[in-house]
């Protein structure tokens, strides 16, 4: 699954970087020779790195992930209105 559309990075790419020692989003991008563009992938990339580090790799669709994990952040930014 694509994690970063700007750099065409998949979850497998991020997992590979994690296996080579990447512990942060910036580490992974540096190891993969990618540059941070829009930053929309940060939450998902960090989750993949964390999951890979704990050997509990479970990747959900980006939409489901964004709603579940990043919901509080997007609400604070006023981009997501809670349903009533």
Give short descriptive properties of this protein.
mainly alpha; Arc Repressor Mutant, subunit A; 50% helix
Number of strands: 2
Number of helices: 5
The gross shape turns out to be: globular
Taking pLDDT < 50 over at least 5 consecutive residues as the criterion, the unreliable ranges are 56-60
Per CATH, the superfamily of one domain is BFD-like [2Fe-2S]-binding domain
Rounded to an integer in angstroms, the radius of gyration calculated over CA atoms is 13 Å
Judged by helices, strands and strand pairing, the structural class is mainly alpha
For the sheet with most strands, the description reads: 2 strands, antiparallel
Report mean pLDDT, rounded to a whole number.
78
By CATH, the architecture of one domain is named: Orthogonal Bundle
How is the CATH topology of one domain named? Arc Repressor Mutant, subunit A
Assembly form of the protein: single chain
Biggest sheet strand order reads 1-2
Q: Roughly how many Å apart are the termini?
A: 32 Å
Strand content: 5-15%
What does this 3D model show about the protein?
This protein is mainly α and 84 residues long. The protein has a domain at 2-59: Arc Repressor Mutant, subunit A, CATH 1.10.10.1100. The chain has five helices and two strands. It has helices at 11-19, 25-31, 42-53, 62-69, 71-76, and strands spanning 2-4, 9-10. A two-stranded antiparallel ribbon has the order 1-2. It is globular and about 25 Å long.
